[in-house]
Amino acid sequence: MIDRVISGNKICTPEGIRPAVVLIKDGLIADVRSELPTNLIGNVIDIGDSILMSGVIDPHVHINEPGRTDWEGFNTATRAAITGGLTTLVDMPLNSSPVTTTAAAFDQKLAATNGQLHTNCGLWGGLVPGNTDDIDRLIQKGVLGFKAFLTHSGIDDFPNVTEADLRKAMPIIARHGLPLLVHCELSTDEKLASGDPQSYQNYLSSRPREWEDKAIAMMIGLCEEYNCRTHIVHLSSANSIEPIAKAKQKGLPLTVETAQHYLFFTAETIQDGQTQFKCAPPIREKANNELLWTALGDGIIDFVATDHSPAPPDLKQMQSGDFMNAWGGIASLQLALPVLWTAARQRGFTVTDIARWLSEKPAQLAGLAQRKGQIAKGYDADLVVWNPEKTFTVAADSLQHKHKMTPYLNEALYGVVEQTYLVGKLVFENGRFVGLDEGKFINHRAVRRYDTENTEF
Fold first, then answer.
1. What is the reported pLDDT for 188?
2. Which DSSP symbol is given to 195?
3. What are the φ/ψ torsions at residue 4 (nearest 5 degrees)?
4. In a domain, 444, yes or no
5. What is the DSSP string of 275-312?
6. Beta bridge partners of 385
7. CATH at 136
8. Is residue 14 part of a domain?
């Protein structure tokens, strides 16, 4: 017997948005039909003209637990997630303490999730100098891939790798078919900015596009040499779009993400002292960011992820406004969907574009493409119901993040999340939590397509 049925006029399927009926059984999408079966017995929910979309997947989130739980934590991050329609997160190996670079650290992080997973969550392993021998052990534990920095990460316990380190690690990672995610900035010893530390332009000058461009060029070469799945995180330099496009045309296993803040904000509008906007790489000029939009629309950039990286107000230097010493990270997890939709709709993009950028393509990076990211038969019933025409203004008291400081405060956004489902269970509805602790830990061995051929109604 079917457990739940969702009927609506705007169901976002791989074939497009259409009126449909989604049948859910045992946490899976048992079928997607044009009309209700005549012999159906089950709970039917009519969402009218709201959108039903596969739940948002964010593979770039810093949850910071254990060790720096005063920055965020699994409880607050995953509450924020289901409030925003995010049904799967992948946690970065920093800025927790210990960082996830060993099997023992993995076990500590997994233990910290107990009773606190309100959405699904997987883990990336960390690649740092000297931990090549830990790669296989972390894969056995279930990491979905690995993350490396090419410049200082912001914390000393997650040092950046060199090209020599990558040459040792990439053949191992490639053998397992997992992705290597890379923060692409190759910094120099030259001091590129001086003067007023409150000046945003001064900070922008201190991390030029050339840092990204050199790093990306190096990673394209290594990707080709080792045939290792390589993923460029939070692209901000439009200069690198052309070499990325050429690499993809050659068939290299290269993927790219950008972040909402690079698409929503521009350097010209950031005032001095507004350290809530500080991130690395920095938010660049309008002309640059418009080129990112074009690349996203053309499929050169594969998807969008938040790089949610919160920190307490003192670390963000909110009182001093000191960009040079402030923590570089933007809190935005709960707002992933409405922020992107608000900016995208102004440029003529559609809900199907949003579904591709926030659900389908991120699932592919994490190795979940046969299980999550689409409303199709056999997929997990991780779903979000949202109204693309409703608006709201971002207020601190509506945010579930541990720290409410975000550059999106007081922004008027389109796209109100009305319901979130995890494996067919309603967990969030119209501003209130209906079910908590329903999330599951995801590892790379749990990726499989379910058999629904013999489902009876």
1. 80
2. S
3. -155, 150
4. no
5. GGG--SSPP--HHHHHHHHHHHHHTSS-EE---B----
6. 52, 419
7. 3.20.20.140
8. no
Indicate whether 178 belongs to any domain: yes
Predicted TM-score (pTM) of the model is 0.96
Amino acid letter, residue 219: M
Judge whether 336 and 56 are in contact, CB under 8 Å.
yes
- Between CA 135 and CA 132 the distance in angstroms is 6
CB 427 within 8 A of CB 79: no
In a domain, 35, yes or no: no
- Segments of the chain scoring below 70 in pLDDT: 41-42, 189-193, 445-457
Tally of structural domains, the chain: 1
Coil, helix or strand at residue 352: helix
Per-residue pLDDT tens for 376-385? 999 999 999 9
Q: Which amino acid is at 27?
A: G
Q: What's residue 40's pLDDT? A: 74
* Residue range of the domain that includes 228: 55-365
State residue 41's pLDDT score.
Answer: 66
How far, in Å, CA of 223 to CA of 174, rounded?
A: 9
Helix, strand or coil for residue 162? coil
